[in-house]
User: What shape does this take?
Amino acid sequence: MQRRAILKLIGTSALALTAGLATPASAQEVFKLGLILPMTGPSATTGRQIDAAVKLFQAQNGDTAGGKKIQVIVKDDGGVADQTKRLAQDLIVNEKVGALAGFGLTPLALATAPLSTQAKVPQIVMAAATATITEASPFIVRTSFTLPQATVPMAEWAAANGMKKVVTLVTDYGPGIDAEKAFTATFTGKGGTVENLRVPLANPDFSPFLQKAADAKPDALFVFVPSGFGAQFMKQFTERGLDKSGIKLIGTGDVTDDDLLNGMGDVALGVITSHHYSAAHDSPENKAFVTAFKAANGGMRPNFMAVGGYDGMQALYAGLKATNGQGGEALVNAMKGLAWTSPRGAVSIDPQTRDIINPISIRKVEKVGGELYNVEFTTLPAVKDPVKAAKAQ
Ligand code: PHB
Assistant: This one.
């Protein structure tokens, strides 16, 4: 028995030794990041923004962290969940990535969550924003935001500013339903009335829903559409004559996304939204970020997706530094509680939920220097995801 145990021990250490020797030192020093993004399809703006932000972060901060060379491998999932899952599997098994990142839409993050758990590979969600995502795997850390986090301040503002009746119009999937529920609960809790409309995610035609909204004659229309869909929404809003109906347009900042805002034209002027990032955010960190981002990308203005990507890299680099380049559970633990100054303001990773805690501002679309911007006029600091905050109580 004893002899067998000793032999087993020798066998194990011999194996460990061979494994150690078999890996060349240079290969050990590389940490691969699998960055899965929608570079094509209706959410391609999200992929383009995050890819550019990750490149900018590495150009500014170098390509090493915690003694490892960070090699970013970008894969295009076209915004299709089956593709995301297949690419994640391939990156884990064949590329042996130390972490996965990106995730342009909620279903893409959720499809990958079980793989991250199984393989113990951290998953940095830079874009998707349904509240429950971080509950799908203990390996998920999120640097985007959550829809309830952005929506509750909008509902509070609407109630405090004389609005009594609101129609909500949201894209019919995770983040839209989160926005609808958060708005409705907060606004009705303050005595308002709400009517809910949902529009399909695939090839949306907003016109019939806009007609219904107009017929209800509310004080305001609250809208959530995912980043990339705002221009089409605004076009149909104008075509249906809602811009002249006296119905105020409010929403989360996804609809007046900085990437598309300037192209929407003056119809967007006066739209009030709540969000965690505006390219017009007045801070030295943001001014430097916007200037560098534009310079590196032919004048393209960064939107909130870019900031989710930039902050995701910040969390990864700081986490790797803290673990001396170790991945897995140690990296996730090291990212919990991190705090830094982002282009969006002071942020931290909630150690309990692994969600980002950040300021939320109420903004109004205005013309600044001949261009349309979301100009922030009220800011709440350190806003947590209210869904998980309520569960924790
Ligand atoms: C999401 O699918 O979670 C999502 C996508 C785009 C947004 C917000 C949320 O602007």
